[in-house]
Amino acid sequence: MKNKLFKAVFLGLALSTYSIPVQAQSVPNNQKMEWFKDAKLGIFIHWGIYSVNGISESWSFFNNYINHENYMKQLNGFSASKYHPEQWVDLIKESGAKYAVITTKHHDGVALWDSKAQNAITVPNNTLAKKDVLSPFVSTLKNSGLKTGLYFSLPDWSHPYYDVNTRTKKRYEIKNDQKRWQNFVNYYQTQLTELSSQYHPDLLWFDGDWEHTSDEWQAPKTLSLLKKYNSNIIINSRLNTHGDYETPEQGVPVISPTTPFWELCYTMNDSWGYQPYDLNYKTPNMIVRTLADVISMGGNLLLDIDPTSDGSIPEKQVEILKNLGRWTSKNTKAIYETDHGIPFENYKGKSALSKDKKSLFLYLEEAKSLTKIYGLEQKPKSVKILGDNQAVITMDYNQDKTLTLNFSNVKFDKDVTVAELIFETPPTLVKNLKKEEYSLTGLLENKSSQLAAYDIANALHYGNNIMTNSGLTSDGLTMTIKKTAKTNPETINWISKHAEALFETEKGLPDGHYSGMSALSKDKQTLYLFVEGTPTGPVALKGIKNEIARIRIVGEGTLLDHKIYNKLYWSERPGIIYIDIPKDRLDKNMTVIAVLLNKPIELYREKVGAIENNL
Fold first, then answer.
1. Cβ contacts of 225 within 8 Å, gap of 6 or more
2. How far out from the chain centre does Cα 58 lie?
3. Do 123 and 186 reside in the same domain of the chain?
4. Which of 103, 256, 298, 599 could form a disulfide bond with 151, CB atoms 3.0-4.6 angstroms apart?
5. Domain range spanning residue 394?
């Protein structure tokens, strides 16, 4: 490493610092949004007659996969015979969720409550259940202290006054029958009046606004109606332009949404409503890590469950919720009332800050010996592992403003371990952070081969290939790297083994795609992932548009499988790629994975929005 004393003086004279940003206070209605921002986890409940046959909610007849008449025959099978709302609420509360959102009426128009609106189709009056199933749930939810969210579909594809029936069939054109459309507006606003007056929800979760304009929905009037019953009602982003927060759907954003409040709505498998043959569940580990990902970006996770037609919740979903509860109860401080973490250039992982900004939480998705935080102006007064008072973490804070944490004496969580860094005052980060400068000789002489591998990978991630003109060869054989008496042979062996990923490779992925360091081959068609320690689950990649040709472990040839979740075949938005690495093939210093793509890499960094198509 170059002259540290010079660098320290230079930093002190030339670089200013900036405080870790606090959420802007100029946003209207921030006070009413406080509980929502602090909640972090909510449970979505899709329950309706579509659970009888286990087919897509409403979309199955809209897309003409089944005709409307046969779809509606499910009314006769919706029994709710094993429906125990208190068990639902107990499970939701155990998961660590602070609110729930239930589908009071989906696009098929079937209301869970006893709606008196004209031509309403309801569970109490038109199904085998013959009872209002919404009221007891909301009552139990409120008594538990959890916040109440009601999902409401603006479209009603079954209602005679609505203009759209299926993808290929319209009842009428609004411009030709304004009176009929006004009758529909009156109908849906009557239902919203019923929901508001009877249940006094904290949140209204709209869906389907894309089918009409704000003027056609008469959205300002709808909003005024809702505020009449609750002046602090929170509205999601799907009442055209009248919402309080964004609702990205299914795909975890690569880049944090720019709005102060947002919520990822997310399924456990591939379906919103109950489908018995959809067994493509994410693992409990993946769900915990998704929650950590969302928290680190300052958002909420609204995780979906889908009860069966008798009201029971599938065992796999119960397992996922209970594991969430295990993790949330252990890491309460690092979940609720937190804000987004520090930039990726400062820490190669997921992080969050406490509300008072005096605690920085690191979400560790692997069991590893060390990690680094760059450009940290203050040394923490202490570091601890949440839920483990016996853990011992040592700190090394140098004059380059780099903090190295050693986790050698830590028992890691099976999903995500949380390290809390506690400061006397809110920490600040060096502005215009200069990347650490390394000398190859210094790295080779480092007694810790793990630290050397980490520093080589970190430099390469930013396009500083230390191995250029060093004597490295493409295959790691016949290398002429200059050695000294202090050269660490283990570091030389690691370089030789992973020469492919170090020889003429270039800058890695930008922030958001991978929670770690990476590099790209010269032709941009092979992505190299540097994997620290022992991952608790499969390595995750977001926002890769390419098809994957092959994945292997660098330096030893093992081919690896991968699985993609949340990829909608008709959408350009890529799914999340999960790569399993056998534990017995991990390198003790740092494992490198080569992901061969079908063409030079293409990244998806666009905004993730609502799903407006389910063909």
1. 189, 192, 193, 196
2. 26
3. yes
4. 103
5. 338-422
